[in-house]
Amino acid sequence: MSLNPTQDFLTWTRRIQDDIEIFLREVLPAASLVPQRLHEAMRYAVLDGGKRIRPMLAYAAGQITGASHERIRVAAAATELIHCYSLVHDDLPCMDNDVLRRGKPTCHVEYDESTALLVGDSLQSLAFQLVSEYTLADNGETQLTMIKLLAQASGSHGMAGGQAMDLANVGKTPTLPELELMHIHKTGALIRASILLGAYCGKPLPDEELQRLDRYAKCAGLAFQVVDDVLDAEADTATLGKTAGKDATDEKPTYVSLMGAAGAKQFGQELYEDAISALATFDEKADHLRHLAAYIVKRQY
Amino acid sequence: MSLNPTQDFLTWTRRIQDDIEIFLREVLPAASLVPQRLHEAMRYAVLDGGKRIRPMLAYAAGQITGASHERIRVAAAATELIHCYSLVHDDLPCMDNDVLRRGKPTCHVEYDESTALLVGDSLQSLAFQLVSEYTLADNGETQLTMIKLLAQASGSHGMAGGQAMDLANVGKTPTLPELELMHIHKTGALIRASILLGAYCGKPLPDEELQRLDRYAKCAGLAFQVVDDVLDAEADTATLGKTAGKDATDEKPTYVSLMGAAGAKQFGQELYEDAISALATFDEKADHLRHLAAYIVKRQY
């Protein structure tokens, strides 16, 4: 298939973005509720921004298993809340110390550090509240499996662990496998969880198909990070909506610093092809996942 | 009943402390696993310390419903992990900026701020992993209710929200109802969750008994905080294992600053009596809860 997104796909992405925005507005506590400043800051950190890639992946994976819209949006919102919490904490002065995110001042700049800390903490709790409060599966046991998957993807064996590895890498030159291990944790784990949670919302998949979906998830997640590294090195701040060139300034090893820009782009293309081939046995129900893989490697921000 | 703990009760508390320590050691990632520094710091923040009041309350509540030891210890460990994560984040420079906790340097002093931030984040994820991974109830739906309860108690409508209210109160003189609202969130919500989660591990309670348990939880949780305020004002740092007199230094309103020490002690005693009367219709299976209420108001640290 072509790397150029069809009009149908672009319409679909906007529909998902709108739908998840409406649901997030609904489940985030109103800014009028005590403690107002915290709730206002939680909404600031989540709403009106972001590509919503994780929700899109959840929706697209749910299409393969015929999952209902009511279920997928909950799973999608939970993964997006975990993602947003990680951005708020990663931007804090003691971490990446960034002032710009999604084209706006970061949460601790707009509010203050203690509020931003509590925003992240509360968004994580809210994600787990959503996946336990709404019905996501035909039986409680499957839903418990989904919650466990989300918790593992978020914690020290997943996203938070990846962030710790990232911090440990600063000023060092890791090997490619070390860099990959870090990214599989930092970005890959939650992307994988988004896809699997979306799929689990529908009919159970045979093991072989679940493994294919998992391979797609791994390739798409890593491709996302490779492209992120290229964009950080080549795009400008206005386009990115976050500070460009920050990896080099911070002496962070990236795919660009280890492979060069051309090598990283080539690697991104290979990962895209792997992601597509993982979906080979799926019919047209997997087309949104296919388009999303292209979207991930072709994106400009 | 007498406020003096029996030898049996003291033996029981030590047994619970030992048991929860063993289980926490088992479920916390080994310090040899990548990322080692994060895992080592997670163990540092959780193990070898603390009174384990929340686990004790969970165990004691589970005795009323005949819950199995295997289930209660998971629920108890999850509430303790949430509690420990909150201590690590509350001690950070941008929050209470404290250097001593449980008689040891706080996590960000022993490690660094970014590690402490990730420790808190990861401990929260681990708590939700535990309550979704192990079997806690006879059916998945009850277990989902328990997870939702834990998530609500942790987030912006619970503990994290209480911390936000606490920060907003600094330098102000709230009314007693405002102070109580803050503490019901900051400390009370998780104490209540510990008790209800422990109870849910066993046979379902009739609504009327669940409400009595809930009233006990509210009184015990508030009593805990009132006594905390008295101890902060009157005890010394060595006894407390954390910096004494910090509330006054930080200009934090407390029950002592609003009611005076004598008034706060009297209020603690009244809450104890309310907690005991809430358990009036329970038989001797509730004795550990009764002893714990006494332990909470009589504790010296």
Could you give the distance between the termini of chain A?
Answer: 23 Å
Treating each run of at least 4 consecutive H or I residues as one helix, how many helices of chain A?
14
| Most residues in contact, chain pair and counts | A-B, 52 and 52 residues
Oligomer: homodimer
Which sequence of SSEs, written as H and E, runs from N to C of chain A? Answer: HHHHEEHHHHHHHHHH
- Would you identify the CATH H-level superfamily of the domain at 7-212 in chain A? Farnesyl Diphosphate Synthase
Summary?
Chain A is mainly α.
Comma- or semicolon-separated keywords:
301 residues, 14 helices, Farnesyl Diphosphate Synthase, 71% helix, homodimer, 2 strands
Descriptive overview:
The structure is a homodimer of 301-residue chains. With 301 residues, chain A is mainly alpha-helical. The first copy, chain A, has a domain at 7-212: Farnesyl Diphosphate Synthase. In chain A, 71% of the residues lie in helices and 1% in strands. Chain A contains 14 helices and two strands; from the N terminus they run ααααββαααααααααα. Chain A has a two-stranded antiparallel ribbon with strand order 1-2. In chain A, α8 runs antiparallel to α9 and α13 packs antiparallel against α14 (287-298). The longest helix of chain A has 28 residues, at 207-234. The first copy, chain A, is globular. Chain A starts with 6 loop residues before the first helix and ends with a helix. The mean pLDDT of chain A is 94.
